[in-house]
Amino acid sequence: MEQNCMQKIRDIFSSLKGAEKRVAEYILKHPKDIIHFSITELSEAAECGEATIIRFCKKLGYKGYQELKIKMASEVISPIEDIHEEIKENDDELVIMQKVFNANIYSLNQTLKLNDYKLIKKAIDILYNSERIVFYGMGGSAALAYDFYHKFLRTGKWVEFASDSHVQAMISSRLNDMDCIFAISNTGSNKDLIENIGIARKNGTKVISITANSKSPISKVSDVVLISYGKESNFKSEAMESRISALSLIDTIFVGYCLKDKEEYLDNLHKVRNAIAVKRY
């Protein structure tokens, strides 16, 4: 399969010098402009001569600027997914940024498709009806669980956070059928976390989880399983993309929760803001 134009430009970007690099940078940053630009307008925008643009087009394997415009038009009007481009050792920062951002945007869209809004609603209802909510996460997922815990401190609900296995076990032993565990695990297969959730489930505690793997062990001990999509590559772990997706799921649930009782949330938010106001100059 032939590479699309944007991929070709990113592949040769680090090898370009001077004016040709300015042409490539302008196209990568403003791909839609090229469809309407004459070669003169592009030369002015990239601060180079028209001959430089012709040489650049030929380096991409095109006969000239018109062919480049045709290729760009087909991609902008009907975008070709280039989100699975591997990050290479010689990629410049601009190319790295575009590849990472494209991959994250794709992961968010996939996460949106993978999760039924009815499961989001079910998760919100469980949280709303719970007397106590505990947020569990271990390793890299601990930061995500803490982020959710930090948000929920503003709701007035009794909440707790734990990333240590022994502390999780102790908390789980005290939970009952009126409580809820919200667990985040990218792999969904952390043995200690699954065991600690199991302790609480024996007491009837409900469990909501976010994981990148729908068939992981954590899904078998959860009442609601939400999927945060992520793809692994050589210079980028799967957790990098699924982290962005998980945060978006967290924000969605939090906003939905707050809307169930807006007055109570705003009242508690006012109290929290007053409490931390004295900590600032």
TrEMBL record:
- State one molecular function term (GO): carbohydrate derivative binding
Identify the InterPro entries for this entry. Homeodomain-like_sf, HTH_RpiR, RpiR-like, RpiR-like_SIS, SIS_dom, SIS_dom_sf, WH-like_DNA-bd_sf
Q: Which residues form the HTH rpiR-type domain?
A: 3-79
Transcription regulation is among the record's keywords: yes
Q: Where are the transmembrane segments?
A: none
Q: From what superkingdom does this record's organism come? A: Bacteria
**GO BP, sorted A to Z:** carbohydrate derivative metabolic process
| Pfam families referenced in this protein's UniProt entry, alphabetically | HTH_6, SIS
**PROSITE patterns reported in the protein's UniProt record:** HTH_RPIR, SIS
- Give the keywords, sorted: DNA-binding, Transcription, Transcription regulation
| CDD domains recorded | SIS_RpiR
Classification via Gene3D superfamilies: Glucose-6-phosphate isomerase like protein, domain 1 (3.40.50.10490), Winged helix-like DNA-binding domain superfamily/Winged helix DNA-binding domain (1.10.10.10)
Looking at the record, the residues that make up the SIS domain are 123-263
Q: What is this protein called?
A: Putative HTH-type transcriptional regulator YbbH
Species of origin reads Caloramator mitchellensis
Q: Which gene encodes it?
A: ybbH
